[in-house]
Amino acid sequence: MSSTDPSPTPGQPTQEQPASEPDQAPAKPRSTYGNPAFADIARSMGAMAVIVVGLYLVGQFFWGNTPDERPPVAYEQTVEDVRQTAPYPVYSPTSLPDGWRANGVTFKPGESGRWHLGVLTEDDRYIGLEQALDSAPRMIEAYAPGVEQRADVEVAGKTWQLWTGGGETTFVREEGEMTVLVTGPAPREDIERFMGLLSSE
User: 54 in helix, strand or coil?
Assistant: First the structure.
């Protein structure tokens, strides 16, 4: 065989190589934002649960769900402000006995203009004062359901209707179109003591 013979010798690779495939773009990493892993979801839910529980505990510390768990409130300035706008004389205690404290005060402007003041005695027994341009029966139904009328009684020089039932003692009186109601599970003598402190001035 001539040295110029182009044929390859046995075992020698040919000069012709198969054509290489076109270069491919590198695969893009998949985003985890659109399709988060289960572990990511679990971690997020765990963090949210910790936040929710924390807020709940803080709320329970500062604000309770029942009248005897709520923190004391300063009601005197609120009373003065409400008296400027309420459509009737607003009652409020001139002072509270030692150990008593106000734990809720609300005024809702409007046609009836509801005024509410809640207090706790030194034994944590609740007394609520309610006023509105409404009738006595409707006020009883709204704020002292389940009580029954007993008699007319005089407290602090004024005549009140006495209602009792379900562990509640309720006093109610109408003054023109306005009704004032005092109710609560506190002993009757404590409620009457509170009523003797009420003034609209």
Answer: helix
Residues 6+ apart with CB under 8 A from 199: 91, 92, 93, 94
Angstrom CA distances, 94 to 32, 67, 79, 152, stand at 65, 21, 11, 25
Q: What is the largest CA-CA distance in the chain?
A: 142
Please tell me the distance from the alpha carbon of residue 147 to that of residue 185, in angstroms, as a whole number: 12
All structural domains of the chain with their residue ranges: 67-199
pLDDT band for 110, please (50, 70, 90 cuts): confident
Q: Note the pLDDT tens digit of each residue in 7-30.
A: 444 444 444 444 444 455 555 555
pLDDT tens readout for residues 136-147: 999 999 999 999
CATH of 67-199, one of 3.40.30.10, 3.20.20.30, 3.30.200.100, 3.30.70.20: 3.30.200.100
Contact status, residue 171 vs residue 161, Cβ threshold 8 Å: yes
